[in-house]
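Summary for the steering committee. One of the milestones for this cycle was to obtain a three-dimensional model of the protein with iron/sulfur cluster bound, which we needed before selecting residues for the alanine scan. The sequence and ligand used are listed below.
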Amino acid sequence: ELDFGITPENLDQLSTESFPLCARNMHEHMRKDHHLKHEARLQFGLFLKGIGLSCDDAVRLFRQEFSKHGISEKQFNQGYKYNVEHQYGRVGRRVNYAPPSCTKIITTKPPNGPLEHHGCPFKHFTGSLLEQRLKTYGLPPKDMDAIKELAQKGHFQGACTKYFEFTHRKKLTTVVDQIQHPNQYFEESRRLIDP
Ligand code: SF4
């Protein structure tokens, strides 16, 4: 079992260093809007579980954020808390749900409108949104163009792999030649940054 020492308190730093674009996007929206819609809560929640955030910490994190959105303690406990605990297999059918792979994220349930933040940015962002975001994250135009070109050609995981290599200034070290899973992205990143 990998232990990255994840807590709600170090997520901001880890998100800028080691989250793939899909997770970083949902994380930023959670911090900024203090809310995420159902599909994003599911995708982001399972990603966080996969990188080792405990169930209690996940409940604490979402409670803190959603309270800033005006969701009362009672509403949170009745609606959202169950869903978080469900993802961890603590309640309901007690299934230990696995975080979805890139293929699954790319091929199912595209975000419906600008208020939904789940999915894969390389597939679901418009070209200009992707460009704007990569610019905000400090990628030089040359790197940005290479990533955008791959995304436009439908090579979403290839674009993600390039993004990894440009932001880490290193090639992937695994046997697989591209990013297959958001949690793989994170683990690879931590291995490089904090071996
Ligand atoms: Fe996330 Fe996978 Fe898309 Fe990368 S390719 S942003 S890891 S869904």
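Key point for the committee: The mean pLDDT is 92.
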